[in-house]
Amino acid sequence: MTAARHRPGWAWQAGAWLLLALYLAPCWYMVGRSFLRIGPATGGGWALTLDHYRAVLGGAGFLGFVWNSLLVLIGVVGANVVFALLSGYAFARYRFPGRSLLFTGLLTTLMVPKQILMIPILDLMVRCGLQDTLWALILPFAVDGFNVFLLRQFIVALPPDLEEAARADGASELQVLARVVFPLCRPALVVVVVNTAVVTWNAFLFPLILTDSEAARTLPIGLALLTQGPFATDWGALMAGSTISSLPLLLAFWFFQDEIIQGLTAGAFRE
Amino acid sequence: MRIHRWAVGGLVALCAWWAWLPLAAAGAEPLELLFWNFWDPALVRPVIERFEAEHPGVRIRSEQLPWNTGLDKVVTAVAAGRAPDICELGSTWMGRFMAQGVLLDLSSATAELLAHYRLAEAVTWEGRTYGLPWMVSTRVLFFNQALFRAAGLDPSRPPATWDELLAAARAIHRPAERIYGFGMNAGEAHVLYKKFLPFVWGAGGDVLDPDGRLVFDGPATRDALAFWGRLREYSYLEKQDLLDEAFMKGSLGLEISGSWNLARFPREAPGLEFGVARLPRPAADRGASTSFTGGQVVALFKNCRHPGLGLDFIKFLTRPEHTLPITRATMVSFPAHRGAYGDPLFTEDPRMQVFVQQLETACHPPIHPQWVELEAIVNQAIERVVVAGEPAASALARAAQAWQEVLARARARRLEPASGPGPVGRPAPWSTALLLLGVTGLLLGAILLAGWRGPRGPWSVPPARLVFLLPWLTTFVLFWIYPLLFSLAVSFTDFDILHPEAIRLVGAGNFVRLWHDAEFRRAFVNTVRFVLGTVPTTTLLGLALALLVQQVRIGQRILRSAFFLPSILSMVVVATIFKSFYAPDGAVNAVLGLVGLPGRAWLVEPAWALPAIMALEVWATAGFAMILFLAALQAIPPQLYEAAEVDGASAWQRFRFVTLPMIRPMTLFVVVVTTIRTWQVFPEVFTLTRGGPLGATDTLVHRLYETAFRFHEMGYASAMAWILLLIVLGLSLLQMRLLGERSP
């Protein structure tokens, strides 16, 4: 690390913190606005308040929305880790007829706007009786093509010697995958987890279309409904809700950031 | 062994987790009706409870929809055969819904009732009735009395004519002091025409004449456009919510707005002295004071399970005693039932009286199946003249031509009301799913069979191992291949999602139209600009942040998390925050003002709207790139730097010849990820500009979404999707070559 050898000048330190303060201005605004009341009691000025948080946390069904979002998050992230590893491995290591055709198909899915698929997918979910259940928010997103692509690229670059050694020792294919490939793939899996978690946690359009009832509502839609006025959004409550909804991912990142960075570094990221 | 057990344990836990997730709700009660509406459940629930008390054994299940995406939700539900029994619909959408025969004809039961309601025209189509009006609203002129006084105007005498309005705006307008004369809507879909059309109607014009012919390009519109052109010089151009904010802060002299402000202004700005007045007429001796009116109606879809009960419910719901509490609580709109207007709420408050009087002369835009298209055309013509300064004659001629094209297409699509039982029905469960699962199995079997040429064939492993691919392959077939084939089939038809039985083959018609479609071309150019503008910037900023954070030793954890923070925020939230930053008196202009640069209306000026959204995108995604670069930087062996230093390399040379080559793979990865993301840019456009101003921020996915869900032209949208797909396919093949499709 360069930083280990060069004395970190105070200029660097100060510069970084100053830049951070400016860079995060929109976030300051979000948090600040969530604690401010602009209203009659303040004579047009402002005052600190927790009312917005009370309004959101006390909103009908709020905890249920958080719970649903968590269920979907765990389902989608878990499925993507397992399935992307399996499929990525198969694409990288097995040779079979039709492989390049399938892989081209996979690459294509990365760049097709999902909006065009909304109606057929909704139709499918209705026919399976899964519309308006959390399954409808998990199954279509259980194996994201991007994650398979990522794992495939990563595994292709790994030396196959270790796997062959394990096979020579009599390990089954699943054992090779779990004991040899899985640990080596940690960096790529970290990207899979972070990326999938952020996208799933914030998803709006598909959950809106695929669920109706409060029992299956996720956090982004719940927040939009709680803070909506027909002509003016309740800004304070919206900002409070946004602050609350960004906390879980931020805390997760804060606690696991060393693992994430180490994980990314572990295999020296190759494409 | 340890890891293996962990992996198996994890899999088992995951399966258990899934099995535990709640499946579909149990069967519906015998007399249950599903009611979709837009209101706070606390307002609707009491009425439902009273209705259920009067009708034992009946249950009304109410589900709330979001205002700005509710129409899309209703349309997709109808298309999938999942329309609710009872639905609240915006009055301007009714032309389409009624003409396409998805609503239940209630004529016989509501014929004499309708006289008691305002907005009866919104539920009437070709002499038949398809619902009951629920709430209505109108717009009046709000004026700030303190600013009137300061400008030497009489605060008790609001402008009654166009000239007086112009004079008042001119007297108040002092932009240097952040005081503006008039609040003019701009850069926002669905709102502009509501403020502008009253001037056309007041001058004796209209959009369509009684026979349905376009008269929007007539002299009244030209007068109104000329007047707005003059008024613009003393105006603050922004979106409605920001205009209301500005008025509340006391920096706006006049604006046209709705009754919700009667509750909001006293609550949030108690010191604000304001009055309301009817909209001005063209001149004291000419024209009339009129305004826009619209509202919500309740209708039954054709698949309504208990029509008699549904009808009882909508009659119950729209009664004055059940609508007045909604008005009192929200002040957003008034009861549609005329019986409510004797209430003290209306008779005792002089400001409410202004609204009630205005309601008497207010006009509803034409009820027409193609109103959604016409609305877009009208809005664009107004923006062309007022914002972009195009001559009225050419803008109106273009509008007339665009309308002719819309009509021609509609005629070709034979959009007449369907007779007989509607297209709306609930499909048989499982049939398609089983079919598709079968297809997946066949596909896999075919691959296996085709490839099975004994142990020395093209296989490197026993075919049974392909089971590893099965989860991905299943979702690939179910959620990509099937929908894509569906859309391929549809792209050769004029499939209208509200009118599926009128589907017609048009051959390559959609693709030919695409080739000539200037709006599609513009969206393509905008998207390419967006990708080219954001990808290098995000990559460079991510790298710069990573290099900076790496230098910092105290608090590096905090810095890392903090710079990453924007990446975990939802794009909708980010867009909402930036909306206020980009306001004319928002943070961006304030900072520019500090260094002496002139401010701008970032999202209203066509030249600046797209770059403004690009900046937002870069801000929101650079943190993710930073984390990836940090990982790549930490993986560089320190010996390389030491060796370079021994060789006398300068800091720049170390960066150029050690750092850059070592992070090249990660750079490529960041570029690919960012390209994929920005190519599909949508939520920020949808939240901030809806493609405006004048199409400057209309991107491919946004265009596709609008075509499919606002104009319901699924066939045309599918053709767009397939053209995109072919482009993408080319790019993917290129990418594969670039990233090296190495054989294992």
UniProtKB/TrEMBL annotation, chain A:
Keywords: Cell membrane, Membrane, Transmembrane, Transmembrane helix, Transport. It holds the Pfam family BPD_transp_1. InterPro entries: MetI-like, MetI-like_sf. It is found in: Cell membrane. It is a multi-pass membrane protein. Gene3D superfamilies: MetI-like. Residues 66-256 form the ABC transmembrane type-1 domain. It comes from the Bacteria. The keyword S-adenosyl-L-methionine does not apply. The chain crosses the membrane at residues 12-31, 65-89, 101-122, 134-151, 188-210, 235-256. Belongs to the binding-protein-dependent transport system permease family. This is Maltose/maltodextrin ABC transporter, permease protein MalG. It comes from Candidatus Ozemobacter sibiricus.
From TrEMBL, chain B:
The keyword Nuclease does not apply. One of its GO terms (biological process) is transmembrane transport. It is found in: Cell membrane. Coiled coil: none annotated. GO terms for cellular component: plasma membrane. Its main location: membrane. Residues 524-735 form the ABC transmembrane type-1 domain. Keywords: Cell membrane, Membrane, Transmembrane, Transmembrane helix, Transport. The chain crosses the membrane at residues 430-452, 464-482, 530-549, 561-582, 608-633, 662-682, 714-734. Pfam families: BPD_transp_1 (PF00528), SBP_bac_1 (PF01547). PANTHER family: ABC TRANSPORTER PERMEASE PROTEIN, INNER MEMBRANE ABC TRANSPORTER PERMEASE PROTEIN YCJO. Belongs to the binding-protein-dependent transport system permease family. This is Maltose/maltodextrinABC transport system II, permease protein 1. It comes from Candidatus Ozemobacter sibiricus.
